[in-house]
Design goal:
CATH superfamily of the largest domain: Endonuclease/exonuclease/phosphatase
Distance between the termini: 35 Å
Number of strands: 8
CATH architecture of the largest domain: 4-Layer Sandwich
Largest sheet: 3 strands, antiparallel
Radius of gyration: 28 Å
Number of helices: 4
Structural class: alpha+beta
Shape: elongated
Oligomer: single chain
Helix content: 25-40%
Number of domains: 2
CATH topology of the largest domain: Deoxyribonuclease I, Chain A
Strand content: 5-15%
């Protein structure tokens, strides 16, 4: 969360001696989104006054998710502001070369597919334990085969809900 919050406060501007009650509200809002204020690489002003009687100030802030410490530093670029009275702010975001799959197989709890998966993976037909390795490999292949046949490919997002099942969907449809 970034922007010109237009709040002067000693929390982020050491040249300003006062605390604003509005900054408390801003921190409450940020906290409700699990965000925390980011630290600039250099503590410099983000708004420059054209009026010589006013001092430059820090009004532009960056809030980040604290579980990503690599994002906890931003750059303030006063040399990029040109005719603006506010300076641009940047954060370096690393892009990984590794591809993270957002699809995976899933079975809804207590669904017909889950019952069929368990039924197909039944090992009661194994009666000879002499060749354990062969039995284990057969078991693995039966489970994988049953999983592929009965599970469905779902897109995993940050909003995915592992607890959602057919009963939930029926209740939602009924509502």
């Amino acid at each position: 969360m970034t922007g010109d919050f237009n709040i002067r406060d000693c929390r982020w501007n050491s040249n300003y001696l006062f605390h604003s009650i509005h900054s408390d509200s801003l921190f409450d809002i940020a906290d409700s989104f699990s965000l925390d204020i980011s630290n600039p690489i250099e503590n410099i002003s983000t708004r420059f006054s054209e009026n010589n009687h006013n001092t430059n100030s820090v009004l532009d802030l960056v809030f980040i998710c604290p579980s990503f410490p690599e994002f906890n530093w931003h750059h303030i670029h006063p040399e990029w502001r040109l005719l603006s009275d506010h300076t641009p702010i940047t954060i370096n975001v690393s892009i990984w070369k590794e591809r993270i799959s957002h699809l995976q197989h899933s079975l809804a709890k207590e669904s017909d597919e889950e019952i069929q998966f368990i039924k197909n993976a039944n090992i009661s037909s194994f009666q000879n334990a002499e060749n354990l390795e062969e039995i284990v490999q057969l078991l693995i292949s039966k489970i994988e085969e049953s999983w592929q046949r009965n599970s469905k490919l779902v897109k995993i997002t940050r909003h995915s809900k592992a607890w959602w099942n057919d009963k939930c969907q029926l209740s939602l449809d009924k509502y």
